[in-house]
Amino acid sequence: MSGGTLVAGISIEGVTKTYGKAPALRDVSLEIREGEFMVLLGPSGCGKTTLLRTVAGLERVDRGRVRIGDRDVTDLPPRDRNIAMVFQSYAVFPHMTVGQNIGFGLRMKRRPKDEIRRRVADGAELLGLVPYLDRYPAQLSGGQRQRVAVARAVVMDAPVLLMDEPLSNLDALLRLQARADLKRLHNEVKRTTIYVTHDQVEAMSMGDRIAVMRDGVIVQVDAPMEIYDRPATQFVGSFIGSPPMNFLTGTLGGGTFSGDGFSFPTGRPPVSDGRTLLMGVRAEHLTLGGGDIPARVLVSEPLGSHALITAMVGKTPVKVQVPIDTRVQPDEEIRLGIQPGLVRWMDQATGEALP
Predict the structure, then answer these.
(1) pLDDT(71) > 80
(2) How many CA atoms are closer than 13 Å to the CA of 218, on its beta-carbon side?
């Protein structure tokens, strides 16, 4: 396989798609660089699979254009777009061996037999399937069948690889291994990849960039850690991270942030006094003891590498990540510290981050 030479950028320009009266995509634009691993992330029904299917040609757009490389493919059928796709269901043929499954697309394109054998061998080597080439899908585990589906797509040498939640049918341990396999695979073949998932851990661990979607629009596109540390909206902060970002609602006044049952100094305020804001902060950016934020412990959960404390700040529960040997009791009064540079301020009315 020719690997990194097979790349093409993808340009999605103002794409709109409506089913009946329900808009699935609303004027979506996204530039995907050559060789990039782009993750479309969001809750069920946000439009991520519909967007992938418009790139694949499985859905016709109502408005907008789709370009792959220097070609406008908006009106082309899937077979003419030079893409490979891996679906959520394995879609392997039960009556074919692993080798026959991997080579199926090549046979449909009537490639020479020697070329098919060579590419099937390369794909099986890349996905760790060499010992299973003569087996049938019923003799394989779920993870192995998924690798067969990926290998079948990779050997096609298409410059664009589309993946629609390919790991969602695997159990937790297999998903962990498969994530590493797919990331290694992308590092080796460098195809331009669009990967759809609702699993934020998959998105954070695999993507070069993540496009977070909600209600048919893209609300933020950025590198994983930029999205984690600097979410553009309250929704993004709540969706990315386990636990999600904590949010306190309050009003600034004289360098003090005051809300329902709490008041503490914030240092230099980000905006003028009197404005109602959301203060967003991650659990690991709060410290226990010696801070200015009074809180009351609800529960402590030991999680192996660390413990997670749920505490009430006024009438709002917050999560605090602490060392595993931290000892606190329910109803214990504590004080939380916070580093001002790690706070994300947002407008309370719009949920959008302040500049």
Answers:
(1) yes
(2) 25
At residue 334, the 3 state secondary structure works out as strand
Sorted by sequence, the CB contacts under 8 Å of residue 324 that are 6+ apart come out as: 302, 303, 304, 305, 306, 307
Can you give the pTM of this predicted structure? 0.88
Domain ranges, ordered by start, for the chain: 3-236, 246-347
Q: Which amino acid is at 241?
A: G
CA distance 164 to 306: 33
Calpha distance 172→170 (Å, rounded): 7
* CATH architecture for residues 3-236: 3-Layer(aba) Sandwich (3.40)
Instruction: For domain 246-347, give the CATH number.
Output: 2.40.50.140
**Residues in CB range of 213: below 8 A, 6 or more apart:** 40, 41, 42, 46, 47, 48, 51, 219
Task: Give the HSE-up count for residue 245: Cα atoms under 13 Å, Cβ half-sphere.
Answer: 25
Amino acid identity at 218: I
DSSP strand E in the chain: where? 10-19, 22-32, 37-41, 63-68, 71-72, 83-86, 160-164, 192-197, 209-214, 217-222, 246-253, 256-259, 262-265, 276-281, 286-302, 307-313, 316-322, 333-338, 344-347
Half-sphere exposure of 56 (CA within 13 A, CB side): 20
Looking at residue 233, its pLDDT comes to 97
Could you give the CA distance from residue 248 to residue 281 in angstroms, rounded to a whole number?
9
Is pLDDT above 80 for 90? no
Average pLDDT in the 228-255 region?
93
